[in-house]
Amino acid sequence: MSSGSPASASSYAPRKILITGAAGFIASHVTNMLIKNYPDYKIVALDKLDYCSSLRNLIPCRSSPNFKFLKGDITCADLVNYLLVAEDIDTIMHFAAQSHVDNSFGNSFEFTNNNIYGTHVLLEACKVTQKIKRFIHVSTDEVYGETDLETDIGNPEASQLLPTNPYSATKAGAEMLVMAYHRSYGLPTITTRGNNVYGPNQFPEKLIPKFILLAMKGEKLPIHGNGSNVRSYLYCEDVAEAFDVILHKGVIGHVYNIGTQKERSVLDVAADVCKLFRLNSEETIHYVQDRPFNDQRYFLDDQKLKKLGWQEKTTWDEGLKKTMDWYTKNPHWWGDVSSALNPHPSISMLTDSTDNYDTLFMKCGNRTETQTGADSGLKFLIYGRSGWIGGLLGKLCKDKGIVFEYGNGRLEDRNSLVNDVKRVRPTHVFNAAGVTGRPNVDWCESHKAETIRANVVGTLTLADVCKEHNLLMMNFATGCIFEYDKEHRQGSGIGFKEEDTPNFIGSFYSKTKAMVEELLKEYDQNVCTLRVRMPISTDLSNPRNFITKISRYNKVVNIPNSMTVLDELLPISIEMAKWNCRGIWNFTNPGVISHNEILEMYRDYMDPEFKWENFNLEEQSKVIVAPRSNNELDASKLKNEFPELLSIRDSIIKYVFEPNKKT
Ligand SMILES: NC(=O)c1ccc[n+]([C@@H]2O[C@H](COP(=O)([O-])OP(=O)(O)OC[C@H]3O[C@@H](n4cnc5c(N)ncnc54)[C@H](O)[C@@H]3O)[C@@H](O)[C@H]2O)c1
């Protein structure tokens, strides 16, 4: 429970909350906080995944069985009516909105549609279904209009609404409807009017993240007009706590300002960002044309919410520093946002930027949702039934209660794949089929046509069939398409990244895999490439297990490599499918481990008498046909998405040696 501990015996206790706009900035913080602090609450997150939202914002929730994400638009009455009944919602926290004032000077119809009509749809659905016990409507300080610079008295909640720009006008319009549904139909509404919020997860069209990203690139910070406009800024975690208090203690029919008395001019904000980045503010700040209308100030009376027990905790310096640290650590969170960093970004420049969410996307085709939990609605079609990874995947699905079927078709036979898709009607396809060679990749050197048929023609055909049927293909590929080079020296800790071009074609196997990876980039909308390396599993009796292999060799080379512990990473591949991850991923545990380090562990955990001999690469080349690749892959992209991912050493200990320990 959060430090304010607002949920007490006398407070409101929601059961199942619908949070609209949950993949946006503020709502994602509120959702993450509620899931963490209230394990009994169930949350359905609804978002249309507009340009300014990201499923990454909800990463902390995704493994919770109480969390479900639905991609959908609040303006769709059928969806909203259905949702309230089917999900048995008793509480709504309504954040979804077009929220960027600059855009409202351009395409204001979108603002009316989303902010007013969308709210109306929600209210009407509540009226019809009659099950809602709390409707928390999220509005803004901007509905009060401009505050005099001279006054010390903030707007109390009873003030008149005098919006000045199209955004705030639509927010005020929505409030009027909320008020009317409360009065006419007794809908239990509570409205919030908040000051500006800042912190991690915010789309960089907004002032603070924009300044931070520009400062990170050493670019100029644009100030609208003369920069004297004053705003009050609250840190996102404090705001999430305010919603916690309002949800549990807010009084029906009331309005609550969420405000701070600490104000800052836009110029001060720019100067503080310059200071944090040690930039000369006189050289860095530049002045651009003002907005068509730019309110001088929004000053709120914040007493009413304080009386409920809420308090702002984060100082400006602390909050700005935390925000800067977050953007510095996550520079690619929003992909390519160069157009949002313009002094006056407009929606028309941004509408395609959903393509920039290179890692996570939701499909709008035959399936519009991803969920977690047993009722996930997932159905996997898996190729590679008789293979190691394919077999493990099936077992994992069984354990997790995920419906799946193995494909009957041959990868190179298009019709057979289409028949499988029609028969199974999957939500996702996993490709763990292909030839790797038995007993090892040397087989491919003498079976080139067979290798091409399965690994090239087959994989590409399956990707194409998936594209035709709007399905995501999770493709188990290999990281053995790189070898240490001058820029990525052995022991340097600099690994190959997802975007690096393969540099190892020493074996025919690797050559075909590198070619396919290149061609699959043309299918980037529906293929997720997982570069597996030297797979390891808990089953030491399996001859394909890298540890089993090297423990049985007469002699081994001793080179550090990136490796994949399947017991840890295969469940992650299922998570990635649920979240519709796409593009290329180094699918290894972070770090490298050498053959000798593994064999030392083998000796310590399994057999104190175990001995082995090393030989060098030259000697090794005499007993193998094709050269082998040795490399380090940079696993930071995966680690970023799955922070709990263990280093290769820790993972091997946890999943292989501890469970098999004999000494
Ligand atoms: N950011 C601030 O400083 C601030 C201050 C006061 C009030 N507010 C209000 O708080 C709320 C959230 O603001 P934010 O800054 O997090 O905004 P945001 O732009 O980051 O998030 C808005 C979210 O709503 C979603 N959305 C928009 N239209 C939708 C629709 N028709 N159906 C489903 N989803 C839709 C978007 O995809 C996005 O994820 C808004 O209502 C805003 O007016 C924001």
From TrEMBL:
Domain RmlD-like substrate binding: 379-550
Pfam families: GDP_Man_Dehyd, RmlD_sub_bind
Coiled coil: none
Top EC group: lyase
Residue ranges of every copy of the NAD(P)-binding domain listed in the record: 18-323
InterPro entries to which the protein is assigned, alphabetical: dTDP_Gluc_deHydtase, NAD(P)-bd_dom, NAD(P)-bd_dom_sf, RmlD-like-bd
Matches recorded under SUPFAM superfamilies: NAD(P)-binding Rossmann-fold domains (SSF51735)
Single GO molecular function: UDP-glucose 4,6-dehydratase activity
UniProt-listed Enzyme Commission number(s): 4.2.1.76
Protein's pathway: Carbohydrate biosynthesis
Necessary cofactors: NAD(+); NADP(+)
Cited CDD domains: dTDP_GD_SDR_e, dTDP_HR_like_SDR_e
Keywords: Isomerase, Lyase, Multifunctional enzyme, NAD, Oxidoreductase
Protein's GO biological process: UDP-rhamnose biosynthetic process
Catalytic activity: UDP-alpha-D-glucose = UDP-4-dehydro-6-deoxy-alpha-D-glucose + H2O
Family designation: In the C-terminal section; belongs to the dTDP-4-dehydrorhamnose reductase family.
Name of the protein this chain belongs to: UDP-glucose 4,6-dehydratase
